[in-house]
Amino acid sequence: MGLEIFNTFILLMLVVVALVSLRVKDLLTASVVFGVYSFLMCLLWAEMGAVDVAFTEATVGAGISTVVMIATIFNLKRKSSD
Amino acid sequence: MFEGGGIINELFIERLNYLIYVVLLLIGLHAMIAKNNLIKKLIGMSIFQTAIILFYVSVGVKEGATIPIYLPEHDPHGSHASHSDGNETEQSNHGPVVLDAELVKGYSNPLPHVLMLTAIVVGVATLGLALALCLRIYQGYGTIEEDEILAKIEKQEMRSNPSDVLKSADSSKQATSRSAKSVSKPKVSSPRSSKRSKASPKTKAKATSPTTKAKTSGTKPVSPKRKAAASKSTTTGSKKSPAKPKTAASKSTTKAKPKPRAKPKAKPTARAKAKSTAKKATASKPKPRTPKK
Amino acid sequence: MKKLSLIPVLLVGILLIYASKDFPEWGDPSSPASKSPLSSHFIANTGVDTEVPNMVTAVLGDYRGFDTMFETVVVFIAGMAVLAILKNSDNKKSGKREFEVDAEPDIIVTNTVRLLVPVIQIFAFYVLAHGHVSPGGGFQGGVLMGASFILVALSWDLDTALARFPLGRCTIVAGAGIILYGGIGLLSMFLGGEFLDYAELANVFPVSREMARYYAILGVEIGVGLTVTAIMFSLYANLSTEGRLKGGL
Fold first, then answer.
1. How close, in Å, is residue B50 to chain A by CA atoms?
2. Residue B213 covered by a domain
3. ipTM associated with this complex
């Protein structure tokens, strides 16, 4: 039962975080929030028993892709129109 | 079969994973379609991707199953360690055995995990590729907002055949109405692009094709300076070969940038011409002139 | 435009939610995906066939080795494409970035990273080598290894990281990973099996056929790890400097 509550909580948080990362007008914030999204996804997969996928997502999604995205935004304009 | 509380129970309690996967997929899809910023589109794409991965992993889950790594008693190398259990008699003799169907149910499905594991890594590689393309687009157009890029492409196409006056006049009229429509709809971009055309009048004047100049001079008073600039642009337009308009445009821009006298000239026309040239003006203007604020 | 785009989105959503009533029950052990003979075979026979306790690694490296090989090739091609796109791109506007950072490397940060990087790299090797018995494998180990170089680049500057792992060597290492992967496959082909049929390696190495697959999976994972390490680092190095490989974040 506790696991289900955890699952539900993370699923709802995922939607919230996804919306936030798309609503924010600052691209740097958006990419950091997207890193949070990836990490929540990683927790969810670890909870569902897909440990390898969770590990990959933790290293790739929350780690490298956030860094790469920030490195790109560093060379672009930080503000977004939407 | 969905009546009363059935559908609520079905969707929100038992299949919350599937529901959230659909919701995330829609969020990502909507971002990919509707967002204006290319980086936002990429974030939407990644959300779309993780939503599909979530679906695959959700399908592979089994109730009460453990992760797809052998428990010590089934482990081909760990069987010696857990020898004392005694319930796996064959194992102590022959090493690993094929698990029977009951034991198979104890492990969650490894196949979706494998598929998704590679998908994640390929996903980050393609994300990097897309970001590189974004950088390149930014170098070429000075912006990563989709509507501004489209406007610049449109303007470049118009500039590529300056000899065909009548036809391009027609197309510019069409472009005017279209761009007016598309500019006025998003609330944010419309004042900004007009402001931007005000901020960079010199480049705009240079970039204006002769046909638009003729059109606007008929409707609006044009300052002599501006006319001169426009005529200059006419000469450059006639001089350069239509085959490579982009290099010529960028060259003229870089030349025009440092000159400060451009400011007062476009003031009177900027507002009126915002419709027709707002999109064009941005084309030849590289990134540093960020007029917002 | 924004309102208009809601129409296809909602259409897709209605279709998917309508379809979701046909999805299997949550966690149903007899759902089609879990009931399929393929995944049952993987779960039941991995220990016998390859002696690898982690089924995901075994399926990744052995049963679906062809798939993984070309996934690695995709990663490689993506990295090379980034290089090609940004190689001689317009670099004139180098000084006009919105944020220019030209601070000295911070002493606390650099010394912390100095302690941290070896740990990360050893952990990367551990993850790579222990992919057989625990979560991990070539992809994760490679990403961690690449992240250690990125960490160096972040805390000092890119030149320091490039001095340790030059971009030319990146390309070579990335190619070497794929060649290692394909070479193991070809070797097993020349030994009489099929492409990527590792069991034939037992003909030349003094191990049983199962353990030949076990070690060949390790070799394949090393190949994947090499490619992923190099590509992840070169992705960062190129994207943070627009292909100039100077300055950067």
1. 8
2. no
3. 0.94
